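Record type: monomer structure entry
Structure origin: computed from sequence
Chain ID: A
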Amino acid sequence: MGMFSESVDVVCSAAGQPESLTWAGASYTVCAEPVRWYERRQWWAEETRAPLGSGPGVVDHEIWRVQVLSSPMASQPPAPEEPDGAEPLTLDLTRHIRSNRWRLLRIHDALHRRTA
């Protein structure tokens, strides 16, 4: 899938790493160690100037790549089409440092096993 930007609710650990998220009414649990990096953004299109020495939040986006599994609702049994060995979904999230709001940036296509 491509890039887009959609609001998500993220619950983080005490260390600030994403642990779970809610997106489009569904709950997901992070199932692997998340990876964080920073990407340059076009700050000049949004700000009149960047203060000297600025970085995360002004010049850079904080990006987290997470692998998640769907969390079944407490009142619902697992769906029959979702076996116990369900494949994780890989997402890229960004956190706006000043507002602490999270957005979903990318959904990576899962690799499907090929059979001969």
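Annotation 1: Residues 74-82 have pLDDT under 50 and may be disordered.
Annotation 2: The chain has one domain: 3-108.
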